[in-house]
Amino acid sequence: MEHVEPHIQTNDILQQILKLNIVENEAEIMTLLINLRLLLTQSSASQETLANNMEFAHFVQNVVFNPIMRTQQRTLHILTLQVLANSVVNNEKTQAATWQTHGAQIAEQACTSPLGSSNNVLLMIMYNIYLGRCTRLVSEQLVFETCVRLWQAIIEAQTDYNFEYLHFLLEHFIVKDGRACVQCYQRLALVEQRIAFLDYVAHYLRENSPNGEISTMLLLFFAKEFRLKSDCILRETIKLRHELHPREVHTLLRIIASASGTENYAKIYAVDHSLFINVSSLLRCVIAAGKEPNSSVDTPMTKLEEVALTSNIDAGYEERVSFELKTLLVRCTANLLYENEANRGYCLDTQLLPALLECTVMDARNPLMREWSILAIRNACINSPDAQQVIAGLTMQGAAPNDMLSELNLDMGALRITDRQQ
């Protein structure tokens, strides 16, 4: 049997597809697309034959970027997408041709609903072009923003589909190219997009950094951003280069709290003593603000009736920026005090221990705050006679009142203390 070159077979299949009607001959077209998908893996000439066929580009336009096809003829849509994806693998010429013809729509559709395999294949195409042989074809900002928008859509849809190429791309930024990541983050105009990206980083940390450690430059940038913007936690907004939002600062704090407690990243923040001073100062301010009448900072919820379904307290308190705020601040403080002589000294200088002792209560608005505050006090006192002397100068008057514990018949609670010198 006479051998036929793959690119000639590719051209023959393309001509057959273009002669068929999408509605009437869907099954036959799909069979041809499956054969075409395989041929594109066999030679660069086959890829170039497809990329240079303008009639097939029109077919792609009608099948891939048509929202009706995406939902009503999904199998045909996905097969065509896979063919397009195979055509750009390791081929500079086809990458350039494909991006010139379809680039804007690929970026737009990659984060469009309904979410699923279509988004993943579109990101695969973007991934191959951006990190392939034509890195200059696609701007890093476009790739970054497309991924952030898709992550936003995933959060809103609460889908559990595995968008592997989304992770490949975002991990490239946060692990391998911290400098570009910082620049792209700073260019994000919408606060919702900045929060979404930070949420992804927090998610990556929760997964224990599965594909490499986060760039040191990026983590240092987060600390700098937190120091610059943290006072908007106590004020609704302030003006710097952007309109700031407390949720952005809250998510920065969550990242720092998580990273500072891990073996891989703790050393990065251990030497940043200005971060410790900022976090501890903010903790004291939040505690003080919570005591003010008509404060915007929520007071502790220590009664079971306050968290019951019949409570007259807004059930959406877990969605407020103040939820877990003190817990995160105390957690950061505990981590930054661990085996850190300089920060222990700052803890004494700023009289932080009494504030930490005030946090040894159970509070539904701040889960695990009590446990983290005990750890923070422990870390402050280890190898620190001065800190131990501060604690020794306090007199225990018994367990502080805690209605939630009383209702549960638990004999424990926060320490109620006074200064012996008073």
Automatic annotation (TrEMBL):
Presence of keyword Cell division: yes
UniProt signal peptide: none
Chain ranges of the Ataxin-10 domain: 326-412
A Pfam match: Atx10homo_assoc
Superkingdom field: Eukaryota
Keywords, alphabetical: Cell cycle, Cell division
Biological process per Gene Ontology, one example term: cell division
GO cellular component, one term: cytosol
Reported function: May play a role in the regulation of cytokinesis. May play a role in signaling by stimulating protein glycosylation. Induces neuritogenesis by activating the Ras-MAP kinase pathway and is necessary for the survival of cerebellar neurons. Does not appear to play a major role in ciliogenesis.
Family: Belongs to the ataxin-10 family.
Name of the protein described by the UniProt record: Ataxin-10
Species the sequence originates in: Drosophila virilis
Gene: Dvir\GJ17949
